């Protein structure tokens, strides 16, 4: 097989493993047909020239050269591919800065090659040469980084008998002891530990099956925060040391690490309380994010965890979720003992009644949409938000936006976008275009660029979400508060928003009263935050955190005229489809 180095075609894996892209790399002009007459020095020199003259970024060049070395190893080196690589590793230290990177490159290329085209004779000879290389590196005759040493021993599967044979070539064949090799390797590993190269040390202890210095070594790694090395060592040593590791995590209050170790090594019976506590902590975090369906799945039908999830829903005031879980898992008897005080459910969050909203109007037909549009066009300021059903399937597209909330200070209109698009798409497009493009109505949103993008993707056939005017994204004005819109409401209005229903099923019809209140509140609170700050900012002191409210400069419009698209080739069209 001819190795062409003038123009190298590198197959680079994209996100979809089935799709591959060919990329041309411009390199210096030389080529060789096979490895029969190519020495390791010449091969490495040409490899360096390829890297130096390559025109793409370092990572892509590395992958391209790795692929090319993998192919060229099939070009019949006279000593065999594995032996040839060992010979290259002997030479590489003379290449200075390129030594470590090229060492990893050719070793990784050989690993790929050995999976499909290994020969026992070549491997047997290479293993002994690699053992000798290891001795030469430790003896400072050859200079290689310890990471490269570990890769050499693993790739060529160098074991203590191989090292013993190289160290004592005149040893009797029936003498199966390898004390000299073991002492030599152990001393090298101790040197790695002294240099705090713990992961390499652990890797070699595991590779050579050397079991010693259990708890004291583990404790040293934990004190040095070398947790990955400690986990690898404990896993190799077995359950007793894994239990010590879990206890060490608990003592450091690293409950998630303890939980993962318990889960991965089947230690639930040894640490039932810790396992359960970590599961509860995980459920609580999911509930706080509003990911109730994911939290329910994570209970794995464990009644104790389900009861805890019900309690979290009750604590958050998510009554319909409480009813849903109790009915599905027959938990009715649990309710009377765990109900939190009603005052606690309302004192922490804003309530729609506080804003004296006169009406929440559901809009799902043409007449209601026309009436809503007329009212909104007469307002100076409205708040806009939208909701869609969450999709927890990794890699799948988001669900279509289900509802859009548009609120004035007294009324909230909730538009059933799915039904309107099915029944009256032209009227929906016309009415929402009038609202979104009105220069007289200031439209408030929170992170609304995300919403408008999702709306445009959900309803690609409509023009109403592709252009807008007089849009003020409150998030851009107030950049400091954490906790999203709820955190901003807490700062400005003194209480946050209950976000437990954020990820509920927004495609169900009818929506529950609590869902309607949640949706309405998200839109109307924008109007009141804006009004509160605009009216009070000029008299508020800096100490109160309400400096002069500069907002006009943050108003944005997107009114680009629709241009006739230029003719695109097939590659451009595909690229646009992927990034659109």
Automatic annotation (TrEMBL):
One of its GO terms (biological process) is nucleobase-containing compound metabolic process. Residues 360-538 form the 3'-5' exonuclease domain. PANTHER family: 3'-5' EXONUCLEASE DOMAIN-CONTAINING PROTEIN (PTHR47765), EXONUCLEASE MUT-7 HOMOLOG (PTHR47765:SF2). Gene3D superfamilies: Ribonuclease H-like superfamily/Ribonuclease H (3.30.420.10). Signal peptide: none annotated. GO terms for molecular function: 3'-5' exonuclease activity; nucleic acid binding. This is 3'-5' exonuclease domain-containing protein. InterPro entries: 3'-5'_exonuclease_dom, Exonuclease_MUT-7-like, RNaseH-like_sf, RNaseH_sf. It comes from the Eukaryota.
């Amino acid at each position: 097989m001819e190795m062409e180095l003038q123009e190298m075609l590198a197959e680079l894996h994209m996100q979809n493993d089935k799709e591959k892209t060919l990329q041309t790399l411009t390199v210096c002009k030389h080529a060789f047909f096979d490895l029969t007459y190519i020495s390791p020095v010449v091969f490495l020199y040409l490899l360096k020239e390829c890297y130096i003259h390559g025109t793409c970024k370092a990572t892509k060049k590395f992958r391209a050269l790795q692929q090319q070395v993998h192919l060229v190893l099939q070009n019949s080196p006279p000593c065999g591919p594995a032996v040839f690589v060992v010979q290259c590793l002997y030479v590489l230290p003379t290449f200075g800065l390129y030594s470590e990177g090229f060492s990893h490159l050719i070793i990784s290329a050989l690993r790929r090659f050995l999976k499909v085209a290994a020969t026992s004779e070549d491997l047997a000879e290479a293993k002994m040469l690699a053992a000798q290389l290891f001795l030469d590196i430790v003896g400072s005759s050859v200079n290689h980084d310890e990471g490269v040493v570990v890769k050499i021993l693993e790739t060529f599967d160098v074991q203590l008998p191989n090292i013993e044979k190289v160290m004592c070539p005149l040893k009797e064949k029936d003498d199966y002891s390898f004390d000299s090799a073991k002492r030599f390797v152990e001393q090298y590993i101790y040197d790695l530990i002294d240099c705090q190269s713990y992961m390499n040390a652990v890797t070699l202890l595991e590779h050579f099956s050397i079991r010693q210095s259990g708890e004291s070594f583990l404790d040293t790694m934990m004190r040095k925060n070398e947790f990955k090395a400690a986990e690898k060592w404990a896993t190799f040593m077995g359950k007793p040391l894994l239990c010590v590791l879990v206890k060490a995590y608990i003592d450091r209050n690293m409950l998630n690490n303890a939980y993962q170790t318990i889960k991965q090594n089947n230690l639930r019976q040894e640490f039932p309380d810790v396992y359960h506590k970590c599961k509860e902590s995980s459920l609580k975090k999911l509930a706080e994010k509003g990911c109730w369906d994911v939290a329910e799945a994570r209970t794995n039908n464990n009644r104790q965890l389900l009861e805890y999830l019900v309690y979290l829903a009750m604590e958050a005031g998510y009554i319909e979720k409480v009813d849903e879980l109790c009915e599905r898992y027959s938990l009715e008897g649990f309710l009377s003992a765990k109900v939190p005080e009603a005052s606690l459910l309302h004192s922490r969050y804003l309530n729609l009644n506080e804003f004296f909203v006169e009406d929440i109007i559901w809009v799902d037909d043409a007449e209601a949409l026309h009436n809503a549009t007329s009212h909104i066009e007469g307002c100076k300021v409205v708040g806009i938000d939208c909701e869609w059903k969450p999709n927890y399937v990794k890699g799948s597209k988001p669900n279509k936006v289900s509802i859009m909330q548009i609120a004035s200070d007294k009324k909230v209109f909730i538009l059933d976008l799915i039904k309107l698009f099915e029944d009256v798409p032209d009227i929906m497009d016309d009415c929402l275009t009038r609202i979104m493009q009105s220069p007289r109505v200031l439209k408030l949103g929170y992170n609304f660029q995300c919403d408008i993008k999702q709306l445009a993707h959900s309803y690609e056939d409509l023009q109403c979400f592709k252009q807008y005017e007089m849009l003020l994204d409150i998030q851009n004005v107030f950049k400091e508060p954490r906790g999203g819109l709820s955190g901003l409401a807490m700062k400005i209005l003194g209480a946050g928003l209950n976000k437990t229903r954020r990820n509920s099923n927004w495609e169900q019809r009818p929506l529950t009263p609590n869902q309607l209140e949640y949706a309405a509140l998200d839109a109307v609170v924008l109007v009141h935050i804006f009004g509160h700050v605009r009216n009070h900012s000029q008299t508020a002191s800096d100490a109160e955190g309400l400096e002069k409210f500069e907002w006009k400069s943050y108003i944005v419009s997107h009114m680009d005229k629709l241009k006739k698209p230029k003719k695109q080739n097939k590659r451009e069209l595909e690229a646009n489809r992927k990034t659109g």
